[in-house]
Design brief:
CATH class of the domain at 12-26 and 64-157: Alpha Beta
Structural class: alpha+beta
Helix content: 10-25%
Number of strands: 5
CATH topology of the domain at 12-26 and 64-157: Thiol Ester Dehydrase, Chain A
Shape: elongated
CATH architecture of the domain at 12-26 and 64-157: Roll
């Protein structure tokens, strides 16, 4: 990848209140198994149909932290984009997401604090049945263009 120029996300001066990004993500079993393997999470509620059928959920569900990971990916890749860093988040997960679900996630810039180089974003997500599955607020430090003498050493990121 060295030599390939990559564009940073939107810097502070390019952001405005009301900017939004929406992504639709299908959560397949392979994605879930990769996530659970990476985190070493063997919660039977996430993978064992016989156990989950005896709970109030009636079937296995997706870990809420996996949904957070999808939100984090949207921020890192789209709004504000590459070079961004989440500094704080508050989220609720009012309804479970079932296996093989499709989730629509929308983030929106709701406040800009130029003095502290932070933006506040809201997030809301719905499953295919229109059930709300995530709702919250995140604080993000958008990317900055390096302006040091060594900035040219990072030339492949611009």
């Amino acid at each position: 990848m060295i030599g390939k120029k990559r564009k940073l996300g939107k810097v502070m001066s390019e952001l405005k209140i009301g900017d939004t990004y929406t992504a639709v993500k299908k959560i397949e079993d392979k994605d879930l198994l990769l996530f659970l393997g990476l985190t070493n999470d063997a919660n039977p509620l996430y993978i064992q149909h016989d156990y989950a059928s005896q709970t109030g959920y009636k079937q296995p569900i997706i870990p809420s932290v996996m949904l957070y990971g999808m939100v984090s990916s949207i921020i890192s890749m789209h709004l504000p984009g590459p070079g961004s860093h989440i500094t704080q988040h508050e989220m609720i997960f009012p309804n479970p997401v079932l296996h093989d679900a499709e989730v629509t996630l929308t983030i929106e810039i709701i406040a800009i604090d130029k003095d502290n180089h932070k933006v506040a974003l809201s997030v809301i997500g719905f499953d295919t049945n229109g059930e709300e599955v995530v709702n919250g607020k995140l604080y993000v430090s958008p990317p900055s263009n390096p302006n040091t003498l060594t900035a040219s050493s990072l030339d492949n990121f611009f």
